[in-house]
Amino acid sequence: MAVRLFMWTTLQLLCAGLLATARDGVGERMQTSVAPCTSGPLGMESGAIPDDSITASSFYHEDYRPSKARLNVEKVGWIPRKKAGQWIQVDLSEYTAITGVIVQGYRTMQHVKSFSVKYSDTAMKGEWKSLVDEEGQVLELAGNTGSGQPVTVTFPSVIVARYIRLLPLTWSRSAPYALRLEVLGCRDAIVRLVDGDVDWSGRVEIYRNGSWGVVCDQDWDLLDATTVCRQLGFKLGAREAKTGSFFGKSGSLPAMMARVSCKGTESRLADCPFVCKTPDKCGRTREAGVICRPNTIRLVGGSNATNGRVEVRRSDIWGTVCDNDWDLTDASIVCRQLGFSEAVEAKAGAYFGPGRGPVHLDGLACDGSESDISDCPSLCWEETQCNHTRDAGVICRSN
Ligand SMILES: *[C@@H]1O[C@H](CO)[C@@H](O)[C@H](O)[C@H]1NC(C)=O
Ligand SMILES: *[C@@H]1O[C@H](CO)[C@@H](O)[C@H](O)[C@H]1NC(C)=O
Ligand SMILES: *[C@@H]1O[C@H](CO)[C@@H](O)[C@H](O)[C@H]1NC(C)=O
Q1: Which CATH class is domain 190-292?
Q2: Cβ distance 344 to 378 under 8 Å?
Q3: Nearest Cα to 300, choosing from 104, 135, 98?
Q4: pTM over 0.85
Q5: What is the position in ligand 2's atom list of the atom closest to the CA of 306?
Q6: Pick the residue with more confidence: 101 or 12?
Q7: Mind listing the pLDDT tens digit for each residue in 78-115?
Q8: What range(s) does the SRCR domain occupy (predicted)?
Q9: pLDDT value at position 17?
Q10: How far is 172 from 199, CA to CA, in rounded Å?
């Protein structure tokens, strides 16, 4: 069964809406959950993050020191030497689900055009991980373009860590370049699934007031499990509610919730009624778990969750859709499946960039009544002639 250590070494939360899959490492199980939060600014602008929590690898001058890197606050920002390999680091003081950042340059000229992200629980050497894509490649995120206005950068997967580092990769031609930022995310009532065989199942753990705890299984049912799965971004809800410490005991974690009574419509487990005075341990009752229904569709490469290249999961492999006969009716099935009202536009020709992996669907001919893209007629038996230059995309109406 699962190794507890994993929780700390490979925990990776994924963001609702913009889903990424866990990579199947050789002989290694990816511990994955998905992000829950109503993401908000963590305090670079408001000052909730104190000056001494902001450090950097280099700075020129007292006026440009790391703590000046607060969104909208200082005139210029943090100014590193114009040299690769530099970084700015924020200590969020506790375990935090980080969904993205807001970055800002100075005036029109001085800005960071792209950057990568590292994160850590300890900030110790050798204990930093990079934000990567599904293939394990370090992500290069687009930053500012020159307006001096803040740009929100949503990470494709939510990271859970105490420390975050931004590493500028490219910058405006006029030196010195400046960076100001806000970190987006949330701390409380995060849930995660631990010790499951796949990233959509596991023991339910919830984070509150600086520590993780478990949920006792008394009265634990599918409605409770559905709320957990939806909070984690599994739009299809739960397949099973597991009781009796099905995914093994957590060991030392305290019981934080008992007799949870969700309706299944809540956005967070913490919003469900439960017995407030919980025991220290689940005791005679056991710890609750869930098996969610894994997502089978997602949008990738768009500007936000409402648009992107359509990717579908078949036999656990994500692939794309060819734009043959791709139209608004097909696109609307995708949008509705993702919880949007309808499609505004069906995009062809890899409008959102070419995908990777197989082309799973070709020649879709939905009639508009389907609830799942895989229920639409398509050229099922033909080997597709399409490559990723013809990947289909959608722009959905955000309700
Ligand atoms: C939060 O944790 C701290 C220290 O662990 C404790 O002193 C405090 O009472 C806790 N607050 C709540 C609301 O549980
Ligand atoms: C998503 O991005 C599109 C275009 O980039 C924009 O028009 C739309 O308002 C955005 N929607 C949300 C919900 O941010
Ligand atoms: C994709 O297919 C087109 C023709 O269908 C071909 O011209 C093009 O070279 C292919 N591109 C790649 C990257 O294979």
Answers
A1: alpha beta
A2: no
A3: 135
A4: no
A5: 1
A6: 101
A7: 987 766 789 999 999 888 889 899 999 988 778 999 99
A8: 191-293, 297-397
A9: 26
A10: 40
